């Protein structure tokens, strides 16, 4: 039996200012009955500008919701205008940081080398990377989805030790399912998540493979979360659009509609 605690992480993308962030986290914590809720670890990933406000609320009200950022620089400090480092995120009490999200790969041309450098930067500062991998529609239609996702995993984990690898989270996010309403079937999600776990066993060992949490992401909603969570190699969800609706996100955290 798996000892992996499910993780539901909300990627707010570029939505909500710091006041709206406070309102959303308050609503979410209330609806979740935060102090007693134990079914999953719940994380929010707001824009950088909201993090300090979310930190103050979470610390002040002793909420169990954890938080993180949507990206980080591969560098720790220096002349990198516009960048935010892992040092800064750690200081703000972040637990997680997404790395290699398909929107970063697509709009900012992030390749496997940069994703790898960001994974290493996160680990240097004890942040847990949520490493996103997943294929586009053409690759899926050509049947290359598993090879593509495994290739991204291999590329992102170069120079990551077994001890470090145990702590990371991997998110399988087929690009054709992100923000499209086109959710992968539970079997599709299991197929790739299972293959990713198998690859972790090959790259490291079975202990690492069974420790790593693997999430599914792509148009997750309260209506489809139960089927996804029933898969043996799916340990949670990375939720985009539905994560900025407190009622819907809380239902997802409860695995129900
Ligand atoms: C995401 O942004 O990681 C995501 C999965 O988005 P959505 O749930 O909106 O498809």
TrEMBL record:
UniProtKB keywords: Cytoplasm, Gluconeogenesis, Glycolysis, Isomerase
InterPro entries, alphabetized: Aldolase_TIM, TIM_sf, TrioseP_Isoase_bac/euk, Triosephosphate_isomerase, Triosephosphate_isomerase_AS
Active site: 101, 173
Pathway of action: Carbohydrate degradation; glycolysis; D-glyceraldehyde 3-phosphate from glycerone phosphate: step 1/1; Carbohydrate biosynthesis; gluconeogenesis
Catalytic activity: D-glyceraldehyde 3-phosphate = dihydroxyacetone phosphate
Top-level taxon: Bacteria
Pfam short name (any one): TIM
Keyword Secreted on entry: no
Binding locations of substrate: 11-13, 179, 219, 240-241
Subcellular location: Cytoplasm
Cell wall biogenesis/degradation in keyword set: no
Gene Ontology MF terms in the entry: triose-phosphate isomerase activity
EC assignment: 5.3.1.1
Subunit structure: Homodimer.
Function: Involved in the gluconeogenesis. Catalyzes stereospecifically the conversion of dihydroxyacetone phosphate (DHAP) to D-glyceraldehyde-3-phosphate (G3P).
Family according to the record: Belongs to the triosephosphate isomerase family.
Descriptive protein name: Triosephosphate isomerase
Gene: tpiA
